[in-house]
Design a protein that fits this description.
about 220 residues, 2 domains, two-stranded antiparallel ribbon, two-stranded antiparallel sheet, 8 helices
Length: about 220
């Protein structure tokens, strides 16, 4: 982290609030950077709230304009998520990595990965639910069921091709999604899910490749 010296103007006097960022590093455990964004003021970029509170308590000479700027910057993620995403994208494109909200960026990236896993489980639940209906309620087979099975197979195939790292998770996702399939059967058919297999009875080949054709 670069060290800067900055005097903050209060009233008509120029009074140092803190001499170097090293002071802050020695006092706080900081994951974010403080950037010198103008010749007149400090601007904190995604400074953790615990640091802000301590900083405000120890440096009461920071003027209200700088205080507002600090609060606005550090709370943008909570106040306006879309604006936060645009800000972070601009910082990334311009190479100003010192201004990135690292902690929240990391959480959002991890969240995207979790969403992909959740989508896989949800689609598997719908697919296996219809395969259960297809197997255990053959008299009610319909064009709608075949359409849903084919659509979910296609969408899962695309999801796995676009996210190859999900493939090792597939077996676990099938096991986790199977209760969703039983719930779907209970909601959409007169079948009692307690009379159905409580562990997925389908192999991966059956889930994705077993033909589903209506009899002519």
């Amino acid at each position: 982290m670069q060290r800067y010296r900055k005097a903050v103007k209060t009233g008509g006097d120029s009074k140092p609030v803190f001499s170097t960022l090293l002071e802050l590093e020695q006092t706080f455990v900081m994951e974010e950077a403080i950037a010198l964004r103008s010749s007149e003021t400090w601007e904190a970029i995604a400074l953790p709230e615990r640091v802000l509170l301590a900083l405000f308590a120890q440096h009461a000479t920071i003027d209200s304009a700088i205080t507002v700027r600090l609060m606005q910057t550090t709370t943008l993620y909570d106040q306006d998520f879309y604006a936060w995403t645009q800000q972070q994208a601009e910082l990334l494109r311009s190479g100003r990595v010192e201004g990135l909200d690292i902690e929240n960026l990391a959480e959002e990236i991890e969240s995207l990965g979790r969403q992909e896993r959740q989508e896989l489980r949800n689609r598997l639940g719908v697919l296996m639910g219809h395969l259960l209906k297809w197997r255990y309620q053959p008299e009610a087979r319909s064009k709608s069921w075949t359409g849903t099975i084919r659509e979910q197979r296609y969408r899962i195939d695309r999801l796995l091709k676009e996210n190859p790292s999900l493939k090792p998770y597939l077996a676990e996702a099938i096991a986790l999604a199977y209760p969703l399939a039983l719930a779907l059967v209970e909601q959409e058919t007169p079948l009692d899910p307690n009379t159905l297999p409580q562990i997925c009875p389908f192999s991966e080949a059956q889930i994705f490749d077993e033909p589903v054709e209506l009899e002519a």
